[in-house]
Description:
Helix content is 37%, strand content 25%.
Amino acid sequence: MKIALxxxxxxxxxxxxLAKQHNHEIIITIDADNLTDLQSDLFKSVDVxxxxxxxxQAFNNIxxxxxxxxxxxxxxxxxxxxxxxxTVLCDEKNGSLLYAxxxxxxxxxxxxxxxxxxxxxxxxxxxxxxxxxTHHTAKLDAPSGTAITLxxxxxxxxxxxxxxxxxxxxxxxxxxxFSIRENPAPGKHEIIYNSAIDExxxxxxxxxxxxxxxxxxxxxxxxxxxxxxxxFPDVMALKFS
Length: 241
C-alpha cells in the first residue's frame, strides 16, 4: 500500500515506522511547510492518505484529498461540526473518508463495554456517572474526542442522562467530564459510577501511540478501494448495542 502522511508530528512518525514494518510504502509526507504538495502528482499517485493534524486544518486537508481522488483516513478530532458538509462534498466528488475519535482497537472494544455497562446502570439511579480523561499537554481539545464519544454513547444507553459538561456537574442529568493534561500521558479514559456505598469503574489506558497508529494503518488498508464516508466501527464490524 502506498501511503501519504498528512501531518508529520509524533503520530505521523509512529505511523511511518509501523507502516514500513508491515511492508507499506510512505510515498510523501506533508506538513505545514509543504501544503502545496497536496496538489502534486506525487501525492495523487498514492493509494490512501492518513491525516493527523489540527482541528482547524482537517477540513481543508480532507477536501484536498477529495479533489485529488485520494481516500483519506482522518484521526484529527475537533472538526466534527463540519462533518455534514464534508459528507455532502464526499458524495459530490466521489470521495472516500474514514474518520474516528480513536483508532485504537482496544479503545473501540472499550466503547462497546461502555454502552453495555450504561444500559445495566440505568436500572440503578443511586449511582452517579462521571468521566475523567488524561492526555499530554500538547493535546489542544478538551474533553478529548474519545471522551465525547464515550459520553454520547453513555447518554444514548442510560435513561438518566441527556447531556455532558466540562468539569463539575452542571445539572441533574449531566455527566461531568474532567480533563487532565500532564506529561507523559499517551491517553487514559475512565468511566466512574459512584454511590454512597461503593464505586464501579472501567478504564482504558494507552501505554504508547502504537495502538492508534496500527489502527489507522488497518483502516487505510480497508478504505483504499471504497467510496463514501465511514466510521471506525465499520472497519471492525463491532456491534455498538
